[in-house]
């Protein structure tokens, strides 16, 4: 469970730094157009911090962190979130600097969402198992 708290804290720091970076980097380059940098802050805070806090709640309530697949889920999900946020930042920096984002990287960048999806599938498989266990233990019908 501690790793969920640490991950949420790290994502909070990344999100806050990303917000400041967006504001200062665009200001330093006199950039006023649309850029992917504008969503790095929110993606970090939602996909990173908020989701890890939500996973922590499920770990506290249902003990899903005891599942043998939980570590795989944790690393897959957070790797996908980092991949996504990293490519958003890279793309945004390219936009601010007036450089083209390589078309070949668009496919690679999109893989972050696929990795996050794999993480969510693992999470829901684990959640289903522990939710059924909780229902049985507490005599709650489905």
UniProtKB/TrEMBL annotation:
<protein>
    <submittedName>
        <fullName>Putative membrane protein</fullName>
    </submittedName>
</protein>
<feature type="transmembrane region" description="Helical">
    <location>
        <begin position="74"/>
        <end position="93"/>
    </location>
</feature>
<keyword id="KW-1133">Transmembrane helix</keyword>
<keyword id="KW-0812">Transmembrane</keyword>
<dbReference type="Pfam" id="PF11070">
    <property type="entry name" value="DUF2871"/>
</dbReference>
<keyword id="KW-0472">Membrane</keyword>
<feature type="transmembrane region" description="Helical">
    <location>
        <begin position="42"/>
        <end position="62"/>
    </location>
</feature>
<dbReference type="InterPro" id="IPR021299">
    <property type="entry name" value="DUF2871"/>
</dbReference>
<feature type="transmembrane region" description="Helical">
    <location>
        <begin position="105"/>
        <end position="127"/>
    </location>
</feature>
<feature type="transmembrane region" description="Helical">
    <location>
        <begin position="5"/>
        <end position="22"/>
    </location>
</feature>
């Amino acid at each position: 469970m501690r790793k969920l708290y640490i991950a949420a804290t790290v994502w909070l720091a990344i999100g806050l730094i990303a917000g400041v970076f967006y504001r200062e980097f665009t200001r330093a380059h006199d950039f006023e157009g649309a850029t992917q940098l504008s969503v790095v802050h929110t993606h970090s805070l939602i996909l990173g911090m908020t989701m890890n806090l939500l996973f922590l709640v499920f770990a506290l309530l249902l003990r899903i962190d005891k599942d043998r697949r939980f570590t795989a889920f944790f690393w897959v999900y957070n790797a996908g979130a980092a991949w996504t946020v990293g490519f958003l930042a890279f793309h945004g920096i390219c936009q601010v600097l007036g450089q083209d984002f390589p078309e070949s990287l668009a496919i690679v960048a999109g893989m972050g969402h696929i990795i996050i999806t794999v993480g969510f599938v693992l999470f829901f498989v684990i959640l289903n198992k522990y939710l059924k266990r909780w229902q049985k233990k507490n005599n709650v019908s489905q």
